[in-house]
UniProtKB/TrEMBL annotation, chain A:
InterPro entries: Ald_Oxase/Xan_DH_a/b (IPR000674), AldOxase/xan_DH_MoCoBD1 (IPR008274), AldOxase/xan_DH_MoCoBD2 (IPR046867), AldOxase/xan_DH_Mopterin-bd_sf (IPR037165), N-heterocyclic_Hydroxylase (IPR052516), OxRdtase_Mopterin-bd_su_IorB (IPR012368), TAT_signal (IPR006311), TonB_box_CS (IPR010916). It holds the Pfam family MoCoBD_2. PANTHER family: ALDEHYDE DEHYDROGENASE (PTHR47495). Signal peptide: none annotated. GO terms for molecular function: oxidoreductase activity. This is Xanthine dehydrogenase family protein molybdopterin-binding subunit. Coiled coil: none annotated. Residues 212-290 form the Aldehyde oxidase/xanthine dehydrogenase a/b hammerhead domain.
From TrEMBL, chain B:
GO terms for molecular function: 2 iron, 2 sulfur cluster binding; metal ion binding; oxidoreductase activity. Residues 1-76 form the 2Fe-2S ferredoxin-type domain. SUPFAM superfamilies: 2Fe-2S ferredoxin-like, CO dehydrogenase ISP C-domain like. PROSITE patterns: 2FE2S_FER_1, 2FE2S_FER_2. Keywords: 2Fe-2S, Iron, Iron-sulfur, Metal-binding, Oxidoreductase. Pfam families: Fer2, Fer2_2. It comes from the Bacteria. Signal peptide: none annotated. This is (2Fe-2S)-binding protein. InterPro entries: 2Fe-2S-bd, 2Fe-2S-bd_dom_sf, 2Fe-2S_ferredoxin-like_sf, 2Fe-2S_ferredoxin-type, 2Fe2S_fd_BS, Beta-grasp_dom_sf, Diverse_Oxidoreductases. The lineage of its organism: Bacteria, Pseudomonadati, Pseudomonadota, Betaproteobacteria, Burkholderiales.
């Protein structure tokens, strides 16, 4: 058997390849040596780019990644504090400046940014070394001051001690002398058995500010003389401004200016409400000659038509045509997935200030290097002349990792249009955010599978149709042989031992709806179709869905382990208690790997006669390597399940003649508190290097839920979001 | 000029009477803890208390707030219940992105001011108007129960 299977390429690998980069290695801050002088004034000890110790005994960890809720400030700080042996209470976190030389994402090469659940994975070694080298310098400082051998000095909970002489000093007391010590050439990292913080409870660093209203988001920035801009965008993607009349808008109190920019017409005002009123009063005539005018139903028709013919081969093993023509039984199913908006709680926004020799932005910035380059190009600056103040982001789910810096460039165009005479805060209202495009692409999947006479899965063909996320973006070089890996991830790396498999992809290029990565990217749809279809096949083969999957996972022990753990904790082999009269109950399972983390979920549902249902309980097992902060992991599991449930139950962006139908939370509904199931989280103990947790828990929820609904009702979900009409008794 | 009483302090603001209280708080008084989420009273991120009742400040004209006692996230910690809720939120590390949490806390405090032993159904009723896209709901529920316990 010849295998020409294309390995699943994750988003980070694409980013890496697209930029043609090599993996960077840990280097102490280039400025650390020179910083010594400066430190003498500020009494700071800043041994490298990632931490600073002040004489007041605070340890400041510099976070190169965006905190958008995933707990990364806490996670990064835990790694530094662990090797430093700091006391958790003395640790604070601050955001790194935009500087790809020092703060690049090591998984992406010389590019700073957050995504692909890579923050902890790429920082792990780097921050351990950062913490350990600072610790070594504190020890050297103490040894020098006390005239004792360094080997006799111990560090614990933020104190440096020499037991024999009874001497001890805080980090702050040693900061000045530590700054004069030579940078250690190499450092010894801790044996994991000695970890004091990792794997234990280290409370979040952002809890206090976020519960008292003190945390600063982009929306909260006020600069002297700042104007707030609200933009009239075209009602259809691809349309442009033909003409506009600003007379009525300018008559609104507070409105200062109205300017045309490439993406629409911006109303600038002294405050947000006046800008909104100004925009409402604006009269714009749009040139729709190049506008996209199809509805989502028509797009789906096109996709279904395309799915009738073979696509580009994304992965191949064995001979699927032969296998499917000789098996005892074949099955076929198709699945439809809508566009999805990210709909983070903080609608998109960005503050821009233009200066004589550069520009400065304030933003919940997720791709500093992309944003720097985009603004540098727009203004004819060097990337270094674009200063980025990265603030907390009120959610992102991928949206703020803009491939082309769309909303940031828009803010910059407005500032440019008024010649930089005032700082500008661009505010997208909820409707702008919902209708602004850059959605999770709509997809149509068609699958065929064969069972042999003993009920074994022997042939598998998976054909996908959907727009490419990478096409037309700075990451387009990541498309290889016509395959955008973000379209097929989760399908090409299906873990099951099926001898003959083929994954094919159609990438339509005539759909004018901007698409983007959305938390867990390709796996948002591939996990659903594959795990629902496998479940259905198990049923047809007369096998138990868990046991049957396990027979095909011998070469994938981490998949198998989470699947077994979730099943065991859910009580898979004991019957589900019956519901009230008229209620049907069911239990379903799914397992999926994304971003190198392995997740299995068992969902339990109760379905009423009218087809309405509730998810009663979700048991989740996760293997993401060493668990840095188990409580942050549990929080991400809980949140990911809720986020995924929103999409499964309600989520759909649809278009009518090219116009987006939804506008706000009444017609694009997220789950609310009463929708939430009981959630049980089980973390697999692991010695493997840590991997991501922000995204990997999202994919298995919808298929586990759909499989539970099938168990309860006998009806298979073929289209998301779930239509309760199809679940009627 | 409209006179507002916010967190026990009187402020005179120059605002059109139809301006939502939200924007007066945020843009005029720079009390930015109260968040803008939807502008249509659909998500609860802008929740403040007006004479003790939770209201959506994005849909409350500032003229309707004149003469009323307004409490925002910046002032809610001065009450016993407010403090207890904030502490419970911190103990359980409820927050993720944090953007909706001011509104969540304001709704939770209003619930506990009226009902010191809320059931899960009470919580669903009182918190149903507050959206959290990070879906921190599991911990919101737990923190409300925890705050109730600490107030007992």
């Amino acid at each position: 058997m010849t295998t020409t299977r294309i390995e699943n390429a994750s988003r980070r690998r694409f980013l890496q390849e697209a930029a043609g980069l090599t993996l960077a290695i840990y280097l102490p801050s280039a400025t650390a040596a020179g910083a010594g002088k400066q430190m003498a004034k500020t009494a700071n000890f800043a041994p490298n780019a990632f931490l600073r110790i002040a004489e007041d005994n605070t340890v400041t960890v510099i976070a190169k990644h965006l905190e958008m809720g995933q707990g990364v400030y806490t996670g990064l700080a835990t790694i530094v504090a662990e090797e430093l042996d700091a006391d958790w209470s003395q640790v604070r976190v601050e955001s790194a400046p935009a500087d790809a030389k020092r703060y690049n994402n090591l998984s992406w090469g010389p590019m700073q940014g957050t995504g692909g659940s890579s923050a902890i994975a790429n920082s792990w070694e780097q921050l351990r070394r950062a913490g350990a080298s600072a610790r070594a310098m504190l020890v050297a400082a103490a040894a020098q001051q006390w005239n004792t051998p360094a080997a006799e000095i111990v560090v614990a909970n933020g104190m440096v001690m020499h037991k024999a002489s009874g001497r001890k000093a805080s980090f702050g007391q040693l900061a000045r002398v530590a700054a004069e010590q030579p940078m250690p050439a190499d450092v010894k990292l801790k044996d994991p058995k000695d970890f004091q913080l990792i794997g234990k409870h280290a409370p979040r660093k952002d809890s206090t500010d976020k519960t008292t209203g003190r945390a600063v988001f982009t929306q909260d920035i006020h600069l002297p003389g700042m104007l707030t801009a609200v933009v009239a965008h075209p009602p259809r993607f691809g349309a442009e401004v033909k003409s506009f009349n600003a007379t009525k808008a300018k008559a609104i109190k507070g409105v200062v200016d109205v300017v045309q920019i490439p993406s629409g017409v911006a109303v600038l005002a002294k405050d947000t409400w006046s800008a909104k009123k100004g925009r409402d009063a604006l009269i714009v005539e749009w040139d729709e000659s190049a506008a996209f005018k199809l509805g989502s139903d028509q797009i789906l028709e096109k996709y279904r038509e395309l799915a009738k013919s073979p696509g580009n081969v994304a992965s191949r093993a064995g001979d699927v045509d032969k296998a499917l023509s000789t098996v005892a039984r074949t099955l076929e199913a198709s699945y439809d997935f809508p566009y999805l908006a990210h709909a983070a709680m903080e609608p998109l926004n960005c503050v821009v200030r233009l200066g004589k020799d550069g520009c400065e932005i304030w933003n919940g910035d997720q791709m500093q290097t992309v944003d720097q380059m985009a603004l540098a190009k727009l203004f004819g600056l060097t990337p270094e002349q674009v200063r980025i103040n990265t603030l907390y982001a009120g959610g992102s789910f991928g949206r703020r990792a803009s491939k082309n810096a769309d909303y940031i460039v828009e803010a910059a165009h407005i500032a440019k249009a008024i010649d930089g005479r005032a700082p500008v805060k661009l505010v997208w209202l909820r409707e702008d955010d919902m209708r602004g495009g850059y959605y999770r692409p709509m997809f149509h999947h068609r699958l065929w599978a064969g069972l042999d006479d003993q009920g074994r899965l022997v042939g598998w063909r998976h054909r996908l149709v959907g727009q490419s996320i990478l096409a037309g973006s700075p990451f387009a070089a990541g498309i290889k042989d016509g395959i955008d890996g973000t379209s097929v991830e989760g399908a090409t790396n299906l873990p099951y031992a099926i001898p003959d498999m083929q994954v094919e992809l159609h990438t339509p290029t005539d759909i004018g709806v901007p698409v983007h990565w959305w938390r867990s990217v390709g796996s948002t749809h591939t996990a659903f179709s594959t795990e629902c279809f496998v479940d259905e096949l198990a049923q047809v083969a007369g096998k138990d869905p868990v046991a049957w999957r396990l027979t095909m996972l011998e070469k994938h022990p981490r998949h198998a382990a989470v699947l077994k753990l979730a099943a065991e904790k859910a009580g898979w082999n004991t019957p589900l208690p019956a519901g009230k009269p008229g209620e049907r109950r069911g239990r379903g399972v799914a397992v999926h790997e994304s971003f190198k983390s392995y997740v299995a979920q068992v969902a339990e549902v109760t379905v009423k006669g009218d087809g309405s249902y509730r998810v009663d309980r979700v048991v989740c097992a996760v293997d993401c390597g060493i668990a840095i902060n188990p409580d942050v992991i549990r929080a991400q599991v809980e949140g990911s399940i809720g986020f995924a449930l929103s999409a499964a139950m309600y989520g759909a962006i649809t278009l009518t003649e090219g116009k987006v139908d939804q506008s706000n939370f009444h017609d694009y509904q997220p789950v609310r508190i009463a929708d939430m199931p009981r959630i049980e989280v089980h973390i697999v103990p692991s010695a493997a290097n840590p991997t991501g947790i922000g995204e990997p828990v999202v994919p298995p929820l919808a298929p586990a839920l759909a499989n539970a609904l099938a168990a309860a009702t006998g009806k298979r979900v073929r289209k998301l979001p779930i239509n309760t009409d199809e679940l009627k008794a | 000029m409209i006179t507002l009483n916010i967190n026990g302090k009187e402020s005179r603001v120059d605002a059109e009477p139809d301006t939502p209280l939200l924007w007066v708080l945020r843009d005029t008084l720079q009390l930015t803890g109260t968040k803008f989420g939807c502008g249509m009273a659909l998500c609860g991120a802008c929740t403040v208390h007006m004479n003790g009742e939770p209201v959506r400040s994005c849909s409350t004209p500032v003229s309707a707030a004149a003469g009323k006692k307004i409490v925002s996230i910046e002032g809610v910690g001065r009450s016993r219940v407010g403090k207890a809720v904030q502490h419970a939120w911190q103990r359980l590390d409820v927050v993720q992105c944090g953007y909706c949490q001011s509104g969540q806390i304001m709704s939770a405090v209003a619930l506990l001011e009226n009902n010191r032993k809320p059931t899960d159904a009470d919580i669903d009723g009182a918190m149903g108007g507050n959206v959290c896209r990070c879906a921190t709901y599991v911990r919101i529920r737990a923190a409300i129960h925890e705050a109730a316990k600490s107030l007992a």
